[in-house]
Amino acid sequence: MIYERPNTVSEAVEILSKSHEKKSILAGGTDLLVQMRSGYYRPSHIVDIKNIPEATQIRDDGDTFLVGAGVPGAQLSEHVELIKAWPGVIEAMDLIGSTQIQGRATLGGNLCNASPAADSVPAMIAADATCIIAGPNGYREEKIENVVTAPGVSSIANNEFVVSIRLAKFKTGRADAYLRFIPRTEMDIAVVGAAVCVLIDKKGICLNAKVSLGAVAPTQVVIETAPQILIGTRLDEETLDKLAKAARASCNPIDDKRGTIEYRTSVAGVLTKRAAKIAFDRAGGA
Amino acid sequence: MATALKDFKWVGTRAVRPDGVEKVTGRAKFGADFSLPGMLIGKVLRSPHAHAKIKSINIEAARTLNGVKAIITGSDFNELPSEWVPAGEVQINFRDLSRSIMARNKVLFEGHPVAAVAATSEIIAREALALIKVEYEILPHVIDVEAAMSPDAPILHEDLFTAGVEPSPKTASNIAKRVDYSSGNIDDGFKEADVIIEKHFTTQPVHQGYIEPHATVASASEDGQCSIWTSTQGQYVVRAYCSEVLQLDISSIRVTPSEIGGGFGGKTTVYLEPLALALSKKAFRPVKMVMSREEVFRSSGPTSGSSMKIKIGARSDGTITAADVELKYQAGAFPGSPIMPGCMCALAPYNISNAKVVGYDVVVNRPKVVAYRAPGAPISEYAVECVINEIATKLNIDPLDIREKNAAKEGTRALYGPQFGAIGYIETLLAARGSNHYKSKLHENQGRGVASGFWFNIGGESCATININTDGTAELVLGNPDIGGSRASLAMIAAEALGIDYNKVHPIISDTSGLGYNFLTGGSRTTFAGGLAVNEAAEDVVRQIRERASKIWDIPEEAVTWEDGFVRPAGTNAGNFEPLSLADVAGMAAKTGGPISGHAQLNAQGAGPGFGTHICDVEVDEETGRVTILRYTVVQDVGKAIHPSYVEGQMQGGASQGIGWALNEEYIYDEEGKLQNAGFLDYRIPVASDLPMIDTIIVEVPNPRHPYGVKGVGEVPIVPPMAAVAGAIADAIGVHLTDLPMSPPRILKELNKKQ
Ligand SMILES: Cc1cc2nc3c(=O)[nH]c(=O)nc-3n(C[C@H](O)[C@H](O)[C@H](O)COP(=O)(O)OP(=O)(O)OC[C@H]3O[C@@H](n4cnc5c(N)ncnc54)[C@H](O)[C@@H]3O)c2cc1C
User: B407, B411, B444, B445: which is closest to B428 by C-alpha?
Assistant: First the structure.
């Protein structure tokens, strides 16, 4: 097994472009190392991105934040401006693992591991985040919801990697929230995750919204009808019930050790409703 | 009520624990920390099937792999006779033990060892495992206890005929044994009842969940001498079991226990030790074996799952008139579930004139169960306590009152035979009622439950040596691994009995060569039985000190008194000498007859039964079925708390494990009988943030048969939680659940049914 630690994006792309049997990007390693140790996965080549400045910094890009794909959760949770702009994304990231895991786990790793239950992914989707991907042909930018294509499978090619995540800056009247259901209080995998982002006017009328669910289908789900249901309302009970119904309708879960189809579907509605209320309150709509 | 105890200097204080600094600085050596020069790494090949015939095992390719030094399979083990022999408090069948640690003709559970390899590195050992070719013929399997009892169930053992039924059955089944206990006449009893509740309950097997996986190093030399370093609850038991399984002289094996990262009963047997030793006997090099967490789940014992029917009748004033109890316990792949203690404990907290308890021990294709805190009792008592709570609700009687009305007290004869002595059950009920917790108010979606629990507590063989050093300090040699604070408690007893400073007593845990046989750390016996031995060894020291003083002063031994750590002449007639301290006398030991060393070896009798009562408050999220434990109080009669912090720790730990059992812990098998959640991610024991600080109320009704009043603490607190939590949930949502775990999906389903 070869371990390499490139210093620049182009060095990394160069390594990735050479043909190696099983290449793996190493960000925090909190998924990768666990998979390797359990014998589930054995890469022949590891490319650590934690020495690449663009992947390890949180940068202000004028209109947006560029969060390096190798920035650990602990650092995000201390970034005052990010918390103000995206409380939902940050709380989703902060739910991952424990204090120890937070020291390493990244948004990029959470995304590229492509688990249907990944906590930060629905939140990034609801936040309309994108990711900057580097490859042999330079950079491209992709919406988060287009990255995960099946459990464990992403649309990032073998010779590409995610350099950073792009998030918009703070905007009055806009807020997000993420809730997940686990039987315990921590150290568990989401049975259901629900992320809601709303934009409201001064009167509390919803102008725009995006809702995404995790762990209820092979990939994260965007509730297509959510804007239709929410725009123009004050997120009253009746509207929220409609939203919960839409959330349930968009579920396509499996029965497994973590939850039944029936249970996941039912709780998806509950969490969507609750997350919507929190987002609405945070946006100043209370 | 038993007599009050005198005031003590050390006993009852919160002294600093002797193993504390070693543990917080990471110096303490646990099982996997031990290494020897030239050591090999051993790994186990395990069955991927729940039930299969082994048609062939081919080890050739593995044997010739560079770095492989030894391979063992079932054919390396002697066939032992199938007989049940007493081993301390339990019965053990060494043929089954041998077969469960290494399969012979059949594998009986997923994870069942079929071969083991020792190699120069872990990577080579793993490669070798992959090269071993095992041909299986897959057989139908059975996981569930009721399914295993049905007439068309796949049979695990063709030679298993139900014991305890007349006439003895002619066909083999999975029912190993039937036991029953009864008194009075239940039909008459039920006729007297104004209310009768009959319910069916199921509980899941739960793992002890110790944080330290099994780990061992074994080293055999060409002259037949064997050494084992291992994480265990009983070094003498490891020695005995290895001697039986490998047919070796007891004296040829020396076992040294490591510090232990939890056992809870799960380390009262052997898994790796005989394998490592057998490998070492082939390679003549030390062999280290450490289980992964996955191996711990797939192949080490949980406690039984169960299916139970409980019928209890009571008069409208709450007096219980009859109880009819049927218990079916899963034993795992070999007979030997804790069905007997399950039956004996089921109704033990109550004085019921008409009672019947029937139990079945049933084999299924899962790892063989092993002791887990109060083995058997939490299961049956959970079901009985739930029914008692439901009767209380129905009769509109406070659940503590109905318990007090029927409570066993001094003189009550238990269904299983003996008459209780100085027990403190009622005292725990009174303390619970008087607690601030019980008086506090609840809010919407919240509920409160109570439940009680009983466990025997045991004595057994214990030895102790106290070596007095020339400076008056003492070396306390003990024979039981310290899981719950026994070193501190026993050193406190030694300090008390010797009249010296606790910090001058240095307790160590001996290997098997340092003391006579000690039964293992279990049965809540260590501070009770060990305390008797230490006290007796201290008395032996005092006798010697008086004898030495009599020599120094040249007066008769009877004229020397011992008080508060000093020898004195008995009176002016005896002579006019300055008192001598233990250190003074010890300093002159060489000149007065040689080293001073006290010993005791005994089989402790008179253990005091333990009772506890728990109060639990929960909040139920009616939309998700999630239960939050808001407040929890453990009340327990411990006889005497030698070291209250440790006692509280035991009470809190038992409650925590019981809450996990109640809410989330379960084994999830797929259709092929393969475990789906062999890890702490999906086998959900509570994490710290799941629990509130657990409050404790120590009740002390001293055990008259112990010099310090000790009864035993560690097991009772895991008995009440399941019913206490169930009671709280019932109070919150109005539904009495009867299946464990009471996980969110299950509760949500009940809530939806209700609407
Ligand atoms: C104890 C524990 C608890 C956990 N709890 C949670 C939880 O609550 N919720 C949750 O969602 N997850 C949880 N996880 C999983 C894990 O921590 C997260 O998915 C984390 O965000 C992964 O980030 P990482 O940087 O460590 O990823 P890594 O392990 O470094 O990488 C994960 C995968 O993505 C690939 N990859 C990483 N970065 C890039 C990149 N920039 N470009 C392309 N591919 C990349 C890697 O090759 C690998 O396949 C837990 C893990 C552990 C060990």
Answer: B407
- Widest distance between CA atoms in chain B: 89
Q: Do B682 and A181 touch (CB under 8 A)?
A: no
- The number of angstroms, rounded, from the C-alpha of B361 to the middle of its chain's C-alpha atoms is 19
Report ipTM (2 d.p.): 0.93
Residues of A with Cβ-Cβ distance to B684 under 8 angstroms: 183-184, 188
SS3 content of chain B, % helix, strand, coil (to 5): 30, 25, 40
CA end-to-end distance (rounded Å), chain B? 51
Average of per-residue pLDDT across B165-169:
94
B702 Cα–ligand 1 center, Å: 55
**Inter-residue contact B383 to B305 (CB < 8 Å):** no
Tokens at residue B119, please? 């190699």
Give the pLDDT score at B5. 63
Strand B560-563 vs strand B287-290: parallel, antiparallel, or unpaired?
unpaired
**Helix runs in B316-398, H state only:** 339-346, 377-395
Size of interface A-B (CB pairs under 8 A): 47
B710 pLDDT band (50/70/90 cuts)? very high
Task: Tell me the shortest Cα–Cα distance from B690 to chain A, in angstroms.
Answer: 6
Order of strands across the sheet with B52-58?
B106-107, B52-58, B133-138
Q: Is the pLDDT of residue B583 over 80?
A: yes
CA–CA dist A47, B581 (Å, integer): 70
pTM, entire model: 0.96
What residue ranges define each of the domains in chain B, with the CATH number in brackets?
A: 20-28+459-604 (3.30.365.10), 34-139+212-261+267-299 (3.90.1170.50), 306-457+608-754 (3.30.365.10)
- For CA atoms B507, B509, B511, B513, give the dihedral sign: positive
Calpha distance A42→A38 (Å, rounded): 10
Mean pLDDT, residues B681-696: 96
Atom of ligand 1 nearest to the CA of A69: 41
CB contact under 8 A, B684 and A183: yes
Q: Which residues line ligand 1 (CB under 6 A)?
A: A 24-32, 34, 49, 69, 95-97, 101, 104-106, 108-110, 112-113, 118-119, 156, 161-162, 187
Instruction: Tell me what the mean pLDDT of segment B326-340 comes to.
Output: 97
By three-state DSSP, how is residue B211 classified? coil
Question: Under a CB-based contact definition with an 8 Å cutoff, are residues B306 and B379 in contact?
Answer: yes
Determine how many CB atoms are found less than 10 A away from the CB of residue B564: 9
B285 Cβ contact partners less than 8 Å away, ≥ 6 residues apart? B38, B39, B40, B69, B118, B219
The angle subtended at Cα A133 by Cα A131 and Cα A139, nearest 5°, is 120
Nearest CA in chain B to A266: B624
Work out the number of other CB atoms within 10 angstroms of the CB of residue B440: 12
Alpha-helical segments (H) within B444-521: 486-498
Please give the Cα distance from B413 to B187 (Å, whole number): 21
B627-637 and B695-699 strand pairing: parallel
Mean pLDDT of chain A: 95
Q: How far is the CA of A92 from the centre of ligand 1 (A)?
A: 13
Q: Decide: helix, strand or coil at residue B353.
A: coil
The pLDDT value recorded for residue A190 is: 95
Domains identified in chain A and CATH numbers: 2-49+58-168 (3.30.465.10), 174-282 (3.30.390.50)
Q: What is the pLDDT of residue B2?
A: 42
Paired residues of B451 in beta bridges: B614
CA distance A149 to A123: 17
Q: What one-character-per-residue DSSP string does B593-658 give?
A: TS-EEEEEEEEE--PPPEEEEEEEEEEE-TTT--EEEEEEEEEEE-S--SSHHHHHHHHHHHHHHH
Q: At what angle do helices A261-282 and B744-754 cross, to 10 degrees?
A: 90
Nearest-angstrom CA–CA distance, B100 and B415: 34
